[in-house]
Every structure is written in C-alpha cells, then in structure tokens.
C-alpha cells in the first residue's frame, strides 16, 4: 500500500500558485519524498524530491514540514499545461529495491 | 541525453497471442523497473532489474509474464498467452545505481489492448 495520502482533486486558476498537499505520517528517517506528475497518455514525469529541507527547481518548490509527516508541492504560476495527476511518493527502503509505490494522486485542473 | 524509450507505443492483440514489449533505459542506468496501470487502477510495480539480475519480481502477476534483460542493457517483457485482464499501460523506468535517492525516469509506456 502507498504510504502517502493526497486529496483526489483540486482546481487552480491559471497564473495562480497551485499548492498540492501530501500526508506521509509514517515516513521513516531515511525516506525521501518524491513528486511526479502524469499528463494524459504520457509516462510519469519527475518533478522534485527532498528529504527534510525545502527544495526548489525550475518546475516547482517542495516544502516539507519539520516533523516530515507532510509536504506541499508548489507550482508558483500554474498554466493550463500543468493540468495533470500529481503523485507524492515515499520510497520504500524496506524492499531492498527502493521501488516506488504509487497512490491515487491528486488530479489538478488548471482553469483559464 | 535520450530518455527511456519503449516500443511499441501501442499493441492490440487477441486473447491467447503473445506480445513482447521492449524498454531501452537511459544510457548508464543499471536500475530498470517495470510498472503497469490497468484501467481505473493505480500504477503498480512489476519488477526491478539491477543490470541483468532480477532484484525484485514480487509484482509480477503470474507466470504468463516473463521479463529479461540480457546483457544488462535493454529489457523485454513478454506476455504469453495474453488474457483480457492484461490490458493496460506498461511503463518502464530507469535510474542510476549506487545513489539511494536518485529519481526514476519513466518512459511513455506501451498501451496493450487484448481483445
């Protein structure tokens, strides 16, 4: 089972910031949080990942709470092309393969 | 740098036939993963290769599925004989070995339809 929970859907106005929350209350000390998105008919696209510090790249920012039990992905200026399903993933270190376990994700709809 | 490529992008076969999916990982990536999404369900892990060795095949649904990675480069996933419930999108991903937090890079998948 996935170790993360996300709201099933969100809307965001074009040009505004999209803030996508994720709960991972059972995360362990050495597990990273990864964010991906899947735009219709494409493969999951890597966005960003982090351990405990906030991270920023050209696509997004990742804010991780101090207790690491939740995080927020921020798309600072959402565009219509950001409409996608966003997945928050905590990598499973117990498997020995560090595989991802996908949950149901958040379907983000950016509105014109 | 070329990304993960998968072939074919679409495949339509009849129940009982055989299909082979191919994945070419990013050059130098020793980790290779197969996932699939069945209609309406979540993306599920199938198996993981490290170079040519199967590290974890706990997600393989049954013995009709055979994955290989001879030489540790590209991988194939063969379904024989195909059943209706095998329809879905099969994704391949790769990552660098030796870096625990290295993200997976996914291909665009092969959409398999079994009729």
Task: Write structural notes for this entry.
The complex is a heterodimer of chains A (112) and B (115). Chain A is mainly β and 112 residues long. Helix content of chain A is 0%, strand content 43%. Chain A is built from no helices and 9 strands. In chain A, the strands form 2 sheets. In chain A, strands 1-9-8-3-4 form a 5-stranded mixed β-sheet, with no helix packed on it. With 115 residues, chain B is mainly β. Chain B is built from no helices and 11 strands. The A-B interface holds A 2, 30, 32, 34, 36, 41-46, 49, 51, 87, 91, 93, 95-104 and B 4, 33, 35, 42-45, 48, 55-56, 58, 91, 93, 100-101, 103-109.
Question: Which H/E pattern describes the elements of chain B?
Answer: EEEEEEEEEEE
- Mean model confidence by pLDDT of chain A: 92
Distance between the termini of chain A: 35 Å
Percent range for β-strand residues of chain A: 35-45%
Specify the overall morphology of chain A: globular
Low-confidence spans of chain B: none
Largest interface: A-B, 26 and 22 residues
Q: Output the strand order for the largest sheet of chain A.
A: 1-9-8-3-4
Count of strand segments of chain B? 11
**End-to-end Cα distance of chain B:** 37 Å
Secondary structure tally: strands of chain A: 9
- Helical content of chain A stands at under 10%
| Rg on CA atoms of chain B, Å | 13 Å
Contiguous runs where pLDDT drops below 50 for at least 5 residues of chain A: none
Decide which structural class fits the backbone of chain A: mainly beta
Q: Total number of helical segments of chain B? A: 0
Q: How many strands, which pairing sense, and closed or not: the largest β-sheet of chain B?
A: 7 strands, mixed
The main β sheet of chain A shows up as:
5 strands, mixed
The proportion of residues in beta strands of chain B is over 45%
N to C succession of SSEs of chain A: EEEEEEEEE
Oligomer status: heterodimer
